[in-house]
Amino acid sequence: MNTLFLKGIDQQFGSLLIRLLPRFKNTRREFPAAPSFLFIRPGGIGDAILLIPAIQAIKSAFPDCHIEILAETRNGAVFTLCSAVEKVYRHDHFMELFSCLTKRYDCIIDTEQHHRLSAVVSRVIRSDVKIGFSGNERVKMFSDCVDYSHDTYEADSFLNLLAPLGITPPEKISKPFLQLPESAKQTVQRLLTPLQSETYICIFPGASIQERQWGEDNFFRLTQLFNQKGFQVVVIGGKEDIDTGNEIVKGNKGTNLAGKTTFAESFAIIQNSHLLISGDSGMLHAGVALNKATVSLFGSGIAAKWAPHGDKHIIINKQLSCSPCTRFGYTPKCPNNAACMQQITVQEVFAAAMSLINKRTE
Asked: One of this protein's GO BP terms (predicted)?
């Protein structure tokens, strides 16, 4: 559904509901021995993945607690890869949403950064403590508000939501923090048998919008360079990436698995690779969560917020005057043909990848 339309619905309908609902006042701060927590996380898989360290921090602080998630269909499967999560509800499935709405929790943590309807849902579900980001009238729905900044790495922003509970974020996020099922690993082992090689580069060419696309021709020429160095390529993605994947491996040494794997299986492909090359995407965050080396291509997205940290990651960002232009999930149509992405050369991506590979073999 159109992002602008959804933003309009949220602003009008969400604002109206917030005005109608009374301001929330918490009635209790002391939790029972086994408190119950609900995390609300709408959106894509990237946010979902980067929320997991905060979930694990809650479990560490309250070992006997019960943690549930209110997500949606497109990101709900991510939370099944976190052992601390006991149940996942999807708000776009009415009966699951209804079941969640009728429950009671000791604490609800709304991880949505700006939109209002998730705050309304947080207010409606019974709990004594409600935590969320400030920024607009949604603050009325919470007992505790935390400031949000586009200049803070997203995983750290989520960890900051735990401050009202007295939980201090770790100095360094432990990795890997995704737990892949054995069935996914076995399926991937079977799918990769035709490669007859354990040496491959994983490429995710997908992008939700045109402004984040690097182009199949660039990925095709990049694959040729990898082949010359003895590396094969495995392309991952959704069904919408099948044709692109076919073009990337055509005449090259590689395998296109786009549209053929689940989230967990795609993550297993990343886990077994030398490194991952991706734009600003959920798959990039999966690579980070699996502690794999990555080369990421940034343009419209905010690198301070989304780019991975550490010496295992190289971020290529041309830092044009018009970028980044994305705010709260919305990217305006680019009048410059996504110059921020098109100015990234095949040679500099290849050089970045080889420097990480060489560092690994030193």
From this structure: lipopolysaccharide core region biosynthetic process
Distance CA 89, CA 87 (A): 7
- Judge whether 106 and 31 are in contact, CB under 8 Å: yes
Q: Which domain holds residue 131?
A: 3-165
Do residues 135 and 221 both lie within one domain?
no
Same structural domain, 149 and 267? no
CA distance linking residue 40 with residue 89, whole number of Å: 9
Q: Is residue 177 a part of any domain in this protein?
A: no
Q: What is the CATH number of the domain that holds 260?
A: 3.40.50.2000
pLDDT tens-digit series, residues 323-332: 787 777 677 7
pLDDT of residue 6: 57
Average per-residue pLDDT in the chain? 91
Residue 258, C-beta contacts closer than 8 angstroms, at least 6 positions apart: 206, 235, 236, 237, 238, 239, 241, 242, 244, 245
CB 109 within 8 A of CB 132: yes
- Tally the domains of the chain: 2
- The Cα 173–Cα 154 span in angstroms is 12
Strand order in the sheet with 36-40: 85-90, 66-71, 36-40, 104-110, 126-133, 144-146
Structure tokens at 90: 């999807």
147 lies in the same domain as 197: no
pLDDT, tens only, 84-142: 999 999 999 999 999 999 999 999 999 999 889 999 999 999 999 999 999 889 999 99
Residues ≥6 apart with Cβ < 8 Å to 274: 199, 200, 201, 202, 231, 293, 357, 360
pLDDT at position 201 is 97
Structure tokens at 82: 């976190």
Mark whether 194 and 329 lie in a shared domain. yes
Same domain (yes/no): 94, 237: no
Give a yes or no: residue 171 inside a domain. Answer: no
Least confident of 30-39, 161-170, 198-207, 345-354: 198-207
